[in-house]
Structure formats: C-alpha cells, structure tokens
Amino acid sequence: MSADRTRRPNDPRQAAEAAFKTATTKPPDPMPAKPPSLPGAKEMVSLRIDRDVLDYFQEDGPGWQDRINAALRQAAGK
Length: 78
Prior knowledge:
Blueprint: H1 12-24, H2 51-58, H3 64-75
C-alpha cells in the first residue's frame, strides 16, 4: 500500500491487524505487592534535619546513623 493512500475506515486489513495485536500483546504484569519487610532490614531514605541535630549525633563519630535510628525508634515507642 502506498504511503499517500489512506485506508478506509472499515479496512479489513486494519481490523485484522488490530485483532492480531490485541490477541498477541501480553498485558503488563501487575505491580508486585510491597515485599514483606525483613527483620533488621534497613531502607535508604532522604531526610532533612536541622544542622544542630545532625552535629549532635555526629559528634561521637561513626555510627551516627544508628544513633539517629535508635532515637527515632525510641520516639516511635518501639
């Protein structure tokens, strides 16, 4: 079929191509449910906190992220 020739609205070839595409196109897989959290697993997040709060937790050196986590855990009552 030439590029300048337009197809008729009820073109059987176009209808067949559409039916074939529908029959052969795999529907997308459903999004997986949120995986169950593993005990002790950490999740990377971005968090904005005041500079003085960050300085407080960092002044004892390495492990400051664990200290922030422990303080948040205590604040959450866990």
